[in-house]
Amino acid sequence: PRFGNMENTLLLHRHTGFRHAISAGIIVGLLLAVVPVLSANTNTKLLKQFRNTYGGITSAEISFSSGVASGTITAVKGKGYRITLPDQEFISDNSTVWQINKRTKTVVINAVSSAGQTASLDQMFFVLMNIYVPSVVSSVPGKACIRLTPPHQSAAIAGVEYANVYLNKKNGITRIVVSDGQHETEWTIRSIKTRVQVKPSAFTFTAPKGWQVIDLR
Asked: Which residues of 130-144 are buried (b: 16+ CB within 10 A; e: fewer)?
């Protein structure tokens, strides 16, 4: 009888342990099933916030740094832009580009069509963020990375294969990295103001008397 009680006890422990193992397995399975759903919901919310914040911007003033240069770009969609650097300015009314060197008192004038097509910050905010398709690369509490890609290969703008947009916990853009598949251009974003009021005269330039003017149009 004593051995029988011991055997029953062992069987009870085995059954109990088995039930616990099953319960633990079910819990783990449920958690594994829930995590992707939560992640998908978080990503959907993040992309919606991104679109609501940056989609449809028509004017902006952005303080940035890229490499060793720091400056500000003021732009209005369809009207032009003005990039201000310590010793230079680039001004355009979308038909003409003025490259201004304050130190040498020189201005180079070119037509937009022949000035070369490269990715710029105004294109990022006015075009790519509205046309390119966003997806979440990474998202952890306090920061995230959203990748923008063309809706199809033939729709690449200014040769941009993808752009990674880095966000802080307040959904503010802190960095943008643009790639054409071979080279990357990176901007660190210090501040962004949208819906700025800019006079049309901000996007034209008349060289002061005594300046050297090189007109390549």
From this structure: eebebebeebeeeeb
